[in-house]
Amino acid sequence: MQEAFIQSAITIAGREAVLTGDAMTAYCEDWRGRYSGAALAVLFPANTLQVSEIVKLCVANQVAIVPQGGNTSLCGASVPVSQGRQVVLNLSRMNKIRVVDAINYTMTVEAGCKLAALYEAAEQANRLFPLGLTAIAAHCEIGGNLSTNAGGIGVLRYGSARDLVLGLEVVLPDGRIWNGLRSLRKDNTGYDLKQLFLGAEGTLGIITVAVLKLFPRPQSTATACVAVASPEVAVRLLATIRASCGQALSGFEIISRNCLDLVFKHIEDAHEPFKKRYEWYLLIKIDDVQQSSPAEAIRSALLNFGGDVLTFGIACDARQAELWWHLRKNISEAQKLEGVSIKHDISVPVSRVAEFIAEASRVLRNRFVDLRIVAFGHMGDGNIHFNVSLLDAAVNDAFIGQHEIEVNRLVYQVVQKLGGSISAEHGLGQLKRETIRDYKDPLELEMMRTIKHAFDPGNLMNPGKVV
């Protein structure tokens, strides 16, 4: 049966579009190297019709489907699980930018388009596509970005991935094609069906094409690097700058000293932003579509804030700003080179970010000694990456193997107490599929399972993920 299935897949997509055996390895292992599984084949359809035919073939043979783009998921969502008959359906060949409508401020793109290519296409039309994942933009693909509701550094101003979509084309779990490729800002004709697939991690269908929102391209930009005494100060400063700069504020990132120490240890061309070392840093970005002076607006806000701002620098020059952003973008890579850590991608109300960092750090240090806590992230939207390991790398693997569940429980209890979420932008995938049951309302989980069963009663669409 397996050989007949492979031959049928070759008939649909072509021999060059079907991988088996050792050639599949890279597509069956996740970005972090934490998850791997087994597949009958990795398939590379060239268009939506081929996706539809492959899904119908899988349904007829009761073979599960794992949708995949650039395979940059951080929660094991884009690779097969360890058991069951599955194929990986990789959409990387579907990489055409179909239409850029500069007047309507939209572009229609296929799911396999690299995010970096969308940045370039928008720029050529003097427009901006603001999904701020610049560190992995050359690798990730828009279908995966939408399926995981990716976040990034621009959420404060532009929203997450689901906020950037006007229409979708989706292949449903029975192989039918839903054409919802509308480029309308207003459409009040019932349920907003596209939202079901955004953030569903491929469990309800396969996004093949999307209509994305574009924005005016900023004509003037300023980035400030600011040292502050504490996260509490950062929370107050954020409120002040939002009041003075309004919608021009497009990024507000917090970085702890531990982050920078790892970056300086492992990343080339990384340098201290100031002569003196500080414990907490902010990167603040102001954009304006007018030829204005955003540097003066942010300078005034910082000077008027008072002594809790320890020092700051402001760059309107793109090269200087990039040196600061180079530090932020390479924190995750530096952590990876240092070794394994227990990672948390959480969100709380912006007003409670400092409280979360302080409380989560306190409860962990009361329980364990010699911890390294690496805290950084998108403070402007309440999303903090809070990662835990031991200072001594030689015993870190053993610590994680023994205490990861307890560390997660202590951190997530603080998140729950503060009204937050245990997954802000990375999703659930395999990593948090079981854990979410302890932190989400049972009625919400029941509603999610009901939707899943309605769309995919055979549970063939990315099984073992989310629900």
Automatic annotation (TrEMBL):
Its cofactor is FAD. Pfam families: FAD-oxidase_C, FAD_binding_4. GO terms for molecular function: catalytic activity; FAD binding. Transmembrane segments: none annotated. Keywords: FAD, Flavoprotein. Residues 35-217 form the FAD-binding PCMH-type domain. PROSITE patterns: FAD_PCMH (PS51387). One of its GO terms (biological process) is respiratory electron transport chain. InterPro entries: FAD-bd_oxidored_4_C (IPR004113), FAD-bd_PCMH (IPR016166), FAD-bd_PCMH-like_sf (IPR036318), FAD-bd_PCMH_sub1 (IPR016167), FAD-bd_PCMH_sub2 (IPR016169), FAD-linked_Oxase-like_C (IPR016164), FAD-oxidored/transferase_4 (IPR051264), Oxid_FAD_bind_N (IPR006094). Belongs to the FAD-binding oxidoreductase/transferase type 4 family. PANTHER family: BLL6224 PROTEIN, D-2-HYDROXYGLUTARATE DEHYDROGENASE, MITOCHONDRIAL. This is FAD linked oxidase domain protein. It comes from Gallionella capsiferriformans (strain ES-2) (Gallionella ferruginea capsiferriformans (strain ES-2)).
